[in-house]
Amino acid sequence: MGVTFTRPAFMEMMNFVGQLLEINFERLDVRYIAIMDKIDTAKGISDLVPMQDLFNEWHAKNMSQKVRNVLRNKGMAGFPLTSNPPYGYMKNPENL
After folding, report:
1. What is the pTM of this model?
2. What stretch of H or E contains 61?
């Protein structure tokens, strides 16, 4: 569970994506549009695109850590982490 960016396969994939955006998309006449980030390769790639990618990575890592912390705290407090009990168990009617 979570996001790990230091995996060799992930780093290789990110390098590949960077090559696609910067070199191959233009050569292959492919247009990449990211509406939320206001990126359109037809207008050229801004110098801010790598920075936006970095912030997106940080956001994913931060949210992953927050979700793990919430689930760990719920478990330590005795709250169920799933909506269905394991096979063979029943929910406590008082805690529905």
Report:
1. 0.48
2. helix 49-76
Domain around 18: 8-77
User: What's the CA gap between 21 and 13, in Å, rounded?
Assistant: 12
95 in a structural domain:
no
Assigned token pair, 44: 């050229």
Task: Please report whether residue 54 resides in a domain.
Answer: yes
* DSSP run (H or E) holding 40: strand 39-40
Backbone angles phi, psi at 32, to 5 degrees: -105, 125
Q: What is the pLDDT of residues 18-73, one digit of tens each?
A: 766 667 677 777 777 878 877 787 777 766 777 777 788 888 889 999 999 999 99
Total structural domains within the chain:
1
